[in-house]
Amino acid sequence: MFRRLPEALSGGRPVRLLVDGEPVEAREGDSLAAALLASGRVACRTTPVGGVPRAPYCMMGVCFECLVSVDGMGSRQACLVEVREGMRVETQRGAREFGR
Amino acid sequence: MSAAAEETCDIAVVGAGPAGLAAAATAARAGLSTVLLDEQATPGGQVHRAVTRSPMAARRAALGDDYWKGEGLVAECIASGARIEHGASAWSVSREGEVAWSRGGAARLLRARHVVVATGALERPFPIPGWTLPGAMTAGAAQTLLKSSGMVGEGSVVLAGTGPLLWLLAAQYLEAGGAIAAILDTTPRANWRRALPHAPSFLASRYFAKGLGLMAKVRRRVRVVGGVTWLGAEGEDRVARVAWRRGDGAVESMDADLLLLHQGVAPNINLAAAAGCAHSWDERQLCFRPELDEWLVSSVDRISIAGDGAGIGGADAAAPRGRLAALGAMLRLGAAAPGAIAAASSEARNDIHAAERGRAFLDLLFRPARQFRVPEGDTIACRCEEVSAARILEAARLGCPGPNQLKAYLRCGMGPCQGRLCGLTVSELLAEAHGTSPAGIGHYRLRPPVKPVTLAEIASMPKTEAATRAVLRG
Fold first, then answer.
1. How do the pLDDT tens digits run along chain A, 100 residues long?
2. How many domains is chain A built from?
3. Of B89, B123, B416, which is closest to A64 when you measure between CB atoms?
4. pTM, whole model, 2 decimals?
5. Which terminus of chain A has fewer CB atoms gathered within 10 Å of its CB, N or C?
6. Partner residue opposite B134 with nearest CB, options A12, A29, A53
7. Is residue A2 part of a domain?
8. Cα B163 to Cα B66, B217, B260, B266, B405, distances in angstroms
9. Cβ atoms B450, B418 nearer than 8 A
10. A5–B177: do the CB atoms touch at under 8 Å?
């Protein structure tokens, strides 16, 4: 869906994350939502009501479509979280679980 | 609880876009202790998003001069000595000037003598069939990806809707090396007739030459379909095709991997409305906007509202609105005598006036058509709770009188976005159903916290001995 331009590939240090257990290489300064889209992931969660897939929509913190689990904490807005080396990310199925 | 989590300042500013940056810089330069809270990792707001570290700095021309103006605003704010807190989500402002905010799962309280809310705008909802599918996102979202991560859409990229941002994004994509398969222009042709009387003032605006240049450049290189009267995204688990109807009734479609939607912006009112600031319906801009005095002070006297949150005026109006709001706050706090700020405030007012020249023309020309604002049938209105237009109309038939009661009928507007993506749609839908206007039907009553906060975060807030005793048992 998205690709990085040459100037984005040459600048910025690589940052490695684990998304659903798979390694993903992002760039320093990426929001997590940008990193997920750049890695070719189309959806980042399924909805609690209809169980349908959703993807980042606004990229500015207002739509809450990009909710994912980050380092064990559920329902984080991926567009407002910056990537960090070693970050563990899980796509969400339905509602956030109790206690996380 | 530790006192470290509770602080005081003279002026708290929420939002580090052009309005917030200018407000904080003005207040801090005058010697007031100033704290600027912003949700993003770097300053600039949406219009100057990631301006201090964009990968596009290697090719500045791709984003245009107006984007890089943000560097100056950020530099001024940093030099002013204002304290800038990034990654800080403000989720409540009280009438007494208490600002509650969170970062990384920890909540804090800031007690300010005056608060400037500069939470900007958000893109108007665009409720068409398939707009919830992965692969459909806002044009602003695509622009954010370009500014902050140097990313462009891949495959068949289709832009659809109306408004200056759509054309700006198209020009930026072309300049940066992205490709656009088509632009589906939903601007109603009848809008020209209504906008033309306001053309003379627009001709005097700097947006006139810029806008015409952008559109001409884009039209030379991209297929533009005008007069689109219906639009829908199709696909199973993601967007695969986009279909549209032209003015003559012909339905066409094309493959699409990415559908970028835009039909203007509206004030992001959640924080200010939850603080109790009065808002009213603006029929020309088709949105709710705050009621403000000549110093941009809201109906709550400790809270001013600057930038697009005060009514859409664009980035050029936002910075002087921020300056004016800060000057007004200084006046109110007795930190400046009227004579001492007379020159600065009249300069800010002149700048606002110049920036707003031609706004009426833009509002009327790019006024989105009714059928793109008021959905029907199975089209989703509330994305969070997955409520369709048909169910909202059914609730209205069963007697649901307005947006607040609709929450009890359908949970509409009660998801995590708290009505940001459906508020305008629901107000217009219910107004039509009841034969009234959005002014009559109103907006959801918004309440803090305006961002989801965990109980643990609230429990960790500072509290007094008396407050603790009040809930202790035994």
1. 999 999 888 878 999 999 999 999 999 999 999 999 999 999 999 999 999 999 999 999 999 999 999 999 899 999 999 999 999 999 988 887 766 6
2. 1
3. B416
4. 0.96
5. C
6. A53
7. no
8. 17, 16, 13, 12, 33
9. yes
10. yes
